[in-house]
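FIELD: query
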Amino acid sequence: MANENYKTLDSVTVADVEALGIHTELAGKLHGELNRIVRNYGSATPQTWYHISKELLTPSLPFSFHQMMYYGCYKDFGPDPPAWLPDPKTARLTNIGQLLERRGKEFLGSKYEDPISSFSDFQRFSVSDQEVFWKTILEEMNISFSVPPECILRESPSHPGGQWLPGARVNPAKNCLSLRKRTLSDVAIIWRSEGNDEAPVEKMTCQELRESVWEVAYALESLGLEKGSAIAIDMPMDVNSVVIYLAIVLAGYVVVSIADSFAPSEISTRLILSKAKAIFTQDFIPRGEKKIPLYSRVVEAHSPMAIVIPNRASSLSIELRDGDISWPDFLDRVKDSKGLEFVAVEQPIDAFTNILFSSGTTGDPKAIPWTLLTPFKAAADGWCHMDIKNGDVVAWPTNLGWMMGPWLVYAPLLNGASIALYNGSPLGSGFAKFVQDAKVTMLGVIPSIVRTWKAKNSPDGYDWSTIRCFGSTGEASSVDEYLWLMGRAEYKPIIEYCGGTEIGGSFVSGSMLQPQSLAAFSTAVMGCSLHILGDDGFPIPSDVPGIGELALGPLMFGASSTLLNADHNEIYFKGMPVLNGKVLRRHGDVFERTSKGYYHAHGRADDTMNLGGIKVSSLEIERICNAVDENILETAAVGVPPAAGGPEKLVIAVVFKDSDNLEQKLVNLLISFNTALQRKLNPLFKVSSIVPLPSLPRTATNKVMRRVLRQQFSQADQGSRL
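FIELD: result
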């Protein structure tokens, strides 16, 4: 939304306000309030917007009025206008604010002023003195080890990412179930199922969660699997899957995360790569009136033994394979152990706890093991950046197959907060009502969900005032859509959060102690250093604006150090520049650092794209598209960012053997591509347009230059549209 279309605030008239559909009396009142704020704070300062957002704007006013105020205020401001400003009193009450008020001078010496002024200094301290920083954060989160670490970080040439918490033994699930931050009667999980939107929210206390997890852990042991065996979960993210996840970890096994949207071939690939010995799944996934089969996909994937949970009913409505077990029969194996505490299996810190998958550029998904360290990285991000604490209620529509699923287990529970889960689509008013009724305080989103909410006005009439902050991840966000989102919750901040499965969390984010600009990141994450590489392949100075491939400081708490099916060193470190004696870690995203110190993401530098928050390699898509029609010579799949911002659109360049009657061929081909991709890869993927080309641009070594295509399609506004 271009600022030039709006008047400066001191030239807005009552008639301008009325023209937005606001009746005369209210328009006059709003205009009077606006004049008062402009008199006190000027017509174009961040303080002007702060007071307008707090004192003038409400969710019930037309969004066009919110736009008039925001874009009018910042008409001549330049890049990165702050949409939210921290308030000193509230800042002191945040997790980091309280820590700095107690120990800021100890950490930063005479430089320490207050939590807001000294935040950037503290972030730099978190990188320069990891030993003190991480010891402090683990203490603040009350993490308990059965054997404490010998130190926080041991650097060695053979481990470019360092060895973290050497010698420690721990169980993250045991820490999730501990009572150091809560009582037995505190609520651990709040949920509601779609279709029951008028019923009270359902709740599970800490005592009920503990007993449920212990019961499943005992039942798991009864299967006789070797400790450390991989056990998959292919289910929606609900109370059962959270209990199962924690039980697998508590009992010393390894979770294999598989998204419930995957086709059988994708499920099979992940089961084979992880050597899974069993899988938890569900008979069907309810979606409105529909029942989407899940168990049948798992069977088609030739899975190992399946434990099958009935969807919302007490018994299964389907027949099971020989050797598979129904959920009631599984629990019945240990009915004598009900209520008995399960003794957690404590393991060395570098033992695996979860295998997740991220698309590589080779076509196969990378199998990324999380160690027992990684859950504490996820929780630390929540503690530091989303300010998650005891009493918070955290909702983030996701699935255990994606990194944010395990994150949503650990970040609330390790910080004494509650998880809020909605069993159903997050796109409609049912979810919006759940946010209100569950009194959600931290709401996580992906931009495509927000776009649908805005189009449908899903939150209309619901009270989201309990929200303290939003989180956003998965794809590029749009300024206008996120202005709308902030306005639904009385202008609470949106904490942008960008990282990766192999990071266990984020490397760049926002903070409740810094001004937040829309669709921008305000800081490197605590404990992380960011480096933008110039044209020469070396980092540009950290205080200079620029754009280029992002590299990360190698010493990152919780980040991966191995891959199951690829050479970790080759993917993340080989060929990277050395800075201060340490080789930097490759990430692969292009980032921009602006003149005001914010960061903007510009997509992947390699040939992996991000579609609706799901990373996928071009090769995976091209393999399927090439087989759709025998008249196709070759294809190139690229993700193209829309000119107005927002998530990447999938564009397929096609070289035909015979290019006669192209127009009709393209229409039919678009349908065929979408059908094939949705059936074989992911039902959420959609081709936006097809661009016919006489040939694909290639390097001297015959590699397709998808980056060149991405640039051309972006400049041509995505070329031909269908």
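FIELD: remark
Residues 269 and 338 are 36 Å apart (CA to CA).
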